[in-house]
TrEMBL record:
The lineage of its organism: Bacteria, Bacillati, Actinomycetota, Actinomycetes, Bifidobacteriales. InterPro entries: PM/HMP-P_kinase-1, PyrdxlKinase, Ribokinase-like. One of its GO terms (molecular function) is kinase activity. Signal peptide: none annotated. Its EC number is 2.7.1.35. This is pyridoxal kinase. Residues 38-268 form the Pyridoxamine kinase/Phosphomethylpyrimidine kinase domain. Keywords: ATP-binding, Kinase, Nucleotide-binding, Thiamine biosynthesis, Transferase. It is an enzyme of class 2 (transferase).
Length: 294
């Protein structure tokens, strides 16, 4: 089964501009330090909107956190004054609940821009330390009208109220979560990280214009026997990059899964690999080759 759906028609001589609304981490590759290189490798002009500044991500014992909410209205006003145009708004980890209203303001200001929402809130059944129930409720407001929503299973539970039942979900449980997310107004969903402990990871693609009635598309690839932080951001950024390169949704999710798997294969060769995050630098040229239409 294939949805074979294209969200963005790429003119081969045009470079799409995408606002990346994520935090910046000094160490531990995730968020903007994933989104900027990965989307650029896929042929996008990335304009960062930093939602917070961290010395390192929240899986570290020691980190500093600076919420940037206060500076964002002026930052975006200045873009409007300069006539900056956007083809996409790709949001992820947020610093405060008020930032959801700021993203909605961007949606009003750039009505043609694709709305790509990675509803970063937690994993393994737990919220990230700087997330609060209020911030999760606010994040849920981004589901309605999202052209693409990219939750993991923890985030799918937080958004839908369905229980978190681990990563080993059967087809009916996957379908239930996808239907609930489409029912909340997401136009397309990629549900990440289903793990039957059979040596593969599975990602599922579902589209609202199929009424949620069709079987979702299952994309499976090898699972490497270690976990590294930041895979969700690398995966979501690669899906978005491939979409802006004109790839279909299924193909974008397949390309992104292979990109993360391949990058994870290179990662253990690096010192402190479990700390530094996914080392995808050597894989960027392959992402360019896979996504480029020029
Ligand atoms: N151990 C792994 N081996 C291979 N691919 C992986 C591995 N971990 C994650 N990935 C890929 O990255 C995607 C996103 O990772 P995941 O950890 O599920 O996201 P999140 O960080 O949002 O919880 C997965 O769905 C899978 O395609
Ligand atoms: C500061 C920060 N940004 C982003 C993330 C998202 O990481 P992932 O790619 O694993 O979803 C996290 C998760 O801990 C984080 O702490």
């Amino acid at each position: 089964m294939s949805t074979n759906k294209t969200l963005y028609q790429r003119d081969p001589h045009y470079i799409p501009r995408v606002a990346a609304v994520h935090d910046m981490c000094g160490y531990g590759k995730c968020s903007l330090t994933a989104a900027i290189p990965i989307l650029s490798a896929a042929g996008c002009d990335v304009c960062p909107v930093p939602t917070a500044l961290f010395s390192a991500h929240t899986k570290f014992e020691h980190y500093t956190f600076h919420d940037t909410t206060d500076m964002l209205p002026g930052y975006l006003d200045a873009w409007v004054q300069e006539g900056v145009e956007l083809d996409g708004i790709y949001s992820g980890f947020l610093g405060s609940a008020e930032q959801v209203s700021i993203i909605q303001r961007m949606y009003r200001q750039y009505p043609q821009a694709l709305r790509l929402v990675d509803p970063v809130m937690g994993d393994g059944g737990h919220m990230y330390p700087t997330y609060t129930p209020e911030l999760c409720q606010a994040t849920a407001r981004l589901v309605d009208g999202a052209d693409l929503l990219l939750p993991n299973l923890t985030e799918a539970s937080l958004l839908t109220g369905l229980p978190y039942e681990g990563q080993d979900l059967d087809q009916a449980q996957v379908q239930e979560r996808l239907k609930a997310l489409l029912g909340m107004g997401a136009r397309n969903v990629v549900l990440k990280g289903i793990d039957h402990k059979d040596g593969f990871l599975r990602n599922y693609v579902a589209c609202a214009d199929q009424g949620g009635a069709e079987e979702p598309v299952e994309l499976k690839h090898e699972k490497l026997p270690y976990m590294i932080h930041g895979t969700g951001d690398a995966f979501a950024s690669a899906v978005c990059g491939a979409l802006f390169a004109g790839r279909s949704l299924d193909e974008a999710a397949r390309i992104a899964g292979e990109f993360v798997r391949s990058a994870m294969e290179h990662t253990p060769a690096q010192p402190d690999f479990e700390q530094r995050g996914v080392s995808f630098e050597l894989d960027l040229k392959d992402l360019t080759a896979l996504t480029q239409t020029l």
